Amino acid sequence: MDTGGSHRGSTVFLATAVFLSLITVAQSIDCFKCVSMNGKFPACDDPFHNNHSLQMLESPCMGGRKGRDGLFPATSCIKIAGVFDDTGERITVRGCGLDSGTATTDTEIIRMSHCGRFYYNDRYVHGCLQSCNDADACNGTPPLSPKTSLVGGLVLPLYLLTLLRS
């Protein structure tokens, strides 16, 4: 009874499945979505911890576009942290957005991170608006370093290749 062929077949299947799981299709981005006013939702505030945040992760994150009905796959995550000018209340907002295709950055919050005063929900806020699109859930904790991703992306396939040859 020869089991070498079935062992090799399952190893090839496993290697293919792992390799395909490493490939990502950039159709949409996953982002944390939450709002905290005056610290009433600490899980949303800074410092942000991923330990209980899966309920806040929207995958894929969907956002609206100016002049269009419905929701569309987001292209960036956003984080707003600031203080309302009129009341002094602190606010933290994590969400997502997409480029609506207009020509000016003042109407496209995802194109430019900035700090200062801006308008949010018909009120002035003094704070920072940050956008990112380099990784899923980038509006939470800092992403893995490029070195970590590179090591995982190279070592795992090489290890699987060695398994296939044995």
Automatic annotation (TrEMBL):
Tagged with keyword Signal: yes
Protein name: Protein quiver
Keywords, in A-Z order: Glycoprotein, Signal
Signal sequence coordinates: 1-28
Record flagged with keyword Glycoprotein: yes
Domain of life of the source: Eukaryota
UniProt xrefs under PANTHER family: PROTEIN CBG11604, RE49668P
InterPro entries: QVR-like
